Amino acid sequence: MKRVWSIIICLSLIFAMVLTGCTSQGADVQTNSNKENETNNEFKAEMTFNGSSTLAPVITAIATEFIEENTTWDKVDSSFPDKYISIYVSAGGSGAGVKAVIEGTADFGMLAREVKSEELEKIGDAKVYKLGVDALTISINPENPLAQLRDNLTTEEVKKIFAGEYKYWDELDSSLPHREIVVVIRDLSGGAHEVFQKSVMGDTQIRPDAIQSPSMGALVTKIIENKDAIGYASYGMVNQNKGKLMPLKVDGVEPTEQTIVDGSYKISRPLIVVKRGELTAPQKAFMDVVMSEKGAEVIEEMGFVPVK
Amino acid sequence: MKTAFDKVSVFLVKVLTLFSLLLLSFIIIFIFKEGYTFFKEVPILKFITGTTWNPTGDPKKLSIFNIILGTLYVSIVAIVIALPIGIGCALLLSGYVKERPRLIIRGFIDIIAGIPSVIFGFIGLMVLVKFFEKAFGFASGESVLAGGILLAIMVLPYIISTCDETMDKLYRAYSPVAQAMGISKIYILRTIVLPQSLRGIAAAAVLAFGRAMGETMAVMMVIGNAPIMPKLLGKCQTIPSLIALEMGMAEVGSLHYHALFAAGFVLMAILLILNIALYYVKRSLDR
Question: What is the recorded function of this protein according to its Swiss-Prot or TrEMBL entry (chain B) (predicted)?
């Protein structure tokens, strides 16, 4: 009998918990819609960024500086209340950034690729801010004999290497040693690979046995560690590891700041922040800093090319 | 007073247990629900037996036979390496080491289990993979073997502690008689303890296998993540590393996104079967 009672009590408690869950959620939705109605009246002291792991350190750096300089919102603009500034940045990939904006779990989404039109549709009233450009360089280990031989590859050659048509270095040039080409890429569905696929590979498939690195750092490490490796290291990473990596020209165009910004170097991707709806006043204050000269400096420091 | 308190604690324990059960069922239902959307479009048999994984191609090819094989292969290699080492270590611990040093050594071995897997992965990438490239002249050291060796180190504590528990019990039961009869230690260990603890060893192997299959980070860093037919010295891809690698980038609600959940569901199904097997092995062990 006792047991029956305890089971009944347990069940009723769980039931009650479920019910409370429901009501509080309902209340949440209500307050949310209320908030939307009176955004101007209510001040939100925190904002959240989610998305590309390429862009996250940039926003974090700018945000840290912004917070250290001002601490509270009233120092940014005297019309704001004196609440502490909090800006949360989390990285989970470009796809996660768009997802967060669509689902409303973050205020801003960070992307290291163009926003797809179906994504724009899902967001609805989307605002897109282009902060800079990140270029992918076709990089090899400086000890690779190819480095002495030539500093240029044509798109066709790059394509053949990454597609696996050239399996050994001597197939590219007969004076090179007969050693296997080690192709290093990022994960196939990631932003970096998407850029590479679009601008170099076209419809050609990448060789299935290419090494998929879990991060750009791991990809660069692989090229630094392995003499036969070739991969698409980001421009920023090459700058941070000068001398340890050798970026090659593609079709005679060297990846430099100038060629990347004017678009003549073609393997590049934009760094974008998306937002649903109008910026609130504090969000605008922060985005102004991001888009300013100072923001551009940080972007450059991180190894990307700011858009002027 | 005391009885009232007792009743409250019993009640609290029951609620907490029920809560954890609910949590488990929620996870299973969630994964199944997300995966089910995928299985409606692609038949499960095609998903499991097809060999091409290409989420960006047109049309998308989403089949994980190679990846399932890779997961199993890496784990089997790990068990094959770790089992003899673990059994040897457990035999030594239960037969030759006195109680105090035994506890200390066990403590050190258990520390291995507490090292974060990303650290193992990093060591694997910088030492193991590099060693394969330098010593054997591989084009790239990322391989099933590298993943297997790394996992073997990681599952070793589980094997040792499970085996040691069984063997210690057996040795304690038989050693006074054996010593009275003047039989050497190694003879007892070899002829009585080892054959009698076969079931315990099997349980340890299954437990370690389950652990190895679910390991993500360390494996992801040393296997090259290429979804091809796995060979011992070639690259491969495992289900956890596939999910970790691609989940962040997959567009929400797309077929690719649901396929990753479906892969997770397959992994969970395999692990569930393994755990049921473990349960039966353990039950026959207790008899």
Answer: Part of the binding-protein-dependent transport system for phosphate; probably responsible for the translocation of the substrate across the membrane.
